[in-house]
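User: Quick sanity check before I run a bigger batch. Here is a single chain. Can you write out its predicted 3D structure?
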Amino acid sequence: QSCHTPPGGHYSGQCSTCHNTTNWGDATFNHSGLTDCQSCHTPPGGHYSGQCSTCHNTANWGDATFNHSGLTNCQSCHTPPGGHFSGQCSTCHNTNDWDDAEFTHNGLTDCQSCHTPPGGHFSGQCSTCHNTHDWDDAEFTHNGLTDCQSCHTPPGGHFSGQCSTCHNTHDWDDAEFTHNGLTDCQSCHTPPGGHFSGQCSTCHNTHDWDDAEFTHNGLTDCQSCHNPPGDEDHPAPVPQCSNCHNTDDWD
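Assistant: Done. Predicted structure follows.
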């Protein structure tokens, strides 16, 4: 270096430390016993930033090893993989057998600090139904609850209102709905095919469904509900029934 300057980014010490004047390309440096690697070398990007000698040795560079025994601050070197538990690895893993991961959930209720409910599942805390002793033994007390649709969706074609309108939390199959005084039947029910398309309450009542009655007095547009029979007494085109019949005595 009395005459030459090392190139940029090169070892800044004497060239003769590694090179010889007989064969410049035959550079060699004896690393035996050296531990301050970073006095010359810089760890590659994303690599452990500490001394190379922490894991590597000068006899066999590829034979890197690190004694993790008793260490718990894993994140001082490692970053959890994406979507993984973000806390210390040592919370679940141990340095003797990495795959033998274990976490004690006993007494924990804030499940969502680590876990996300599966799609379409109850979005609240897992601990609302599950316990940490037997996950499959899920139980939820519905006693006194009426807002069923905060968790459940009625099946297709079912009454779209609250389940508690008909069902109770003591005996789900013992469904009951009081129809007394109701007249808007079609808000829940659809008339069967070929039936009178108007409100059921026009003919039926909520006390005795089979006791259907319709007052025809004064009505003349029979064909708005009825079709003339196709027989010899009613040749086409058939006029209104009221042309021949009356509502007091059909016969």
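The radius of gyration is 43 Å.

User: Great, the batch can go ahead then.
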